[in-house]
Amino acid sequence: MSLQLSVPFRLDVTLCCGQVFLWERRGDWWFGVVGGSVLRVRQCGDVLGFAGANEEFVRRYFGFDDDLNRIAREIGKDQYIKSALHEFWGLRIVRQEPWECFVSFICATYKSVAAIQRMLTQLSLKFGKPVEFEGEVFHAFPSAERLAAASLEELKSCGLGYRASYLQKTSQMVEANGFNVKAMRKMSYAEARDVLLEFPGVGPKVADCVLLFSLGKLEAFPVDVRVKRFLLRHYAPAFEPVFMEKLTQTGGLSDSGYERLNFFGRTYFGRYAGYAQEYLYHYERCFAGTANLKKKRS
DNA sequence: TACTGGCCTAGGTA
DNA sequence: ATACCTAGGCCAG
Predict the structure, then answer these.
(1) How far is the CA of A251 from the C1' of B4 (A)?
(2) Å from A68 (CA) to C1 (C1')?
(3) Which among A80, A122, A159, A167 is most buried, taking Cβ atoms within 10 Å?
(4) Structural domains present in chain A
(5) pLDDT tens by residue, A48-58
(6) Does the predicted model carry a pTM greater than 0.85?
(7) Is the CB of A200 under 7 A from strand B?
């Protein structure tokens, strides 16, 4: 099946920008398991070809209802973000499966994207239900029940390290009390964030990623080392010199430091701050390299 | 309340 | 090759 694109969209950028980890590229086609079924998608200009789901599902998953032109007008506050918007125009925030997204970002702490993909792939292979598609076996993302029953050793064998116990405890909590996606969608950003923060292994960064990439809270503004970096480089005048100095001197980010940068992002860019974050994050990742702003060791 | 280390592991880099 | 550094942070003290 195929659909004629009537909105700006770029599939490859959307799947490569670091918001989702389990899509695999094979030639022109992308393969992914979403909600227990396998999806095959490719883009040729204004035509999106797909198999494994209906058009409505595809439209919802890739966020075609987001009015990108309007979003760009609202977040396009300065030349730097405008450059990122221009470079990656068509990048959209995906509506991931919340549980998969939650697990992904619990595992993502202090890991590179390549390593995250590897961990999640192993978890799926080991604990996910096999799904046949076009004569081939794929694996669905494992349920909370299955992960809750896994031993620490089994989880660690997927490369999780210290994240294994977080994932085990969180899975057990979800198995016992559920993961109330519907309720969180209805809540405000702040309320839903507080719910997520109750789970082990979930701090503000992980919560913001889940809110943005799976719960439709487009004002969420996750702050990681790259975001911190481009804020230091390009938005320094927005902060007090003393605060800037402290940020530059320390590698990590304290709770209060996180909240200040997060608050800046949400107030400066507005209700679509999450889109700004993702365009800028990807821009930083592709063009800014890994210049070292950390305190020099002596 | 705010800050400091420690933490598992795997890619990437010198 | 082999050592070292950093990676989409969180938690305990």
Answers:
(1) 12
(2) 50
(3) A167
(4) 1-65 (3.30.310.260), 82-87+220-295 (no CATH), 96-215 (1.10.340.30)
(5) 999 999 999 99
(6) yes
(7) no
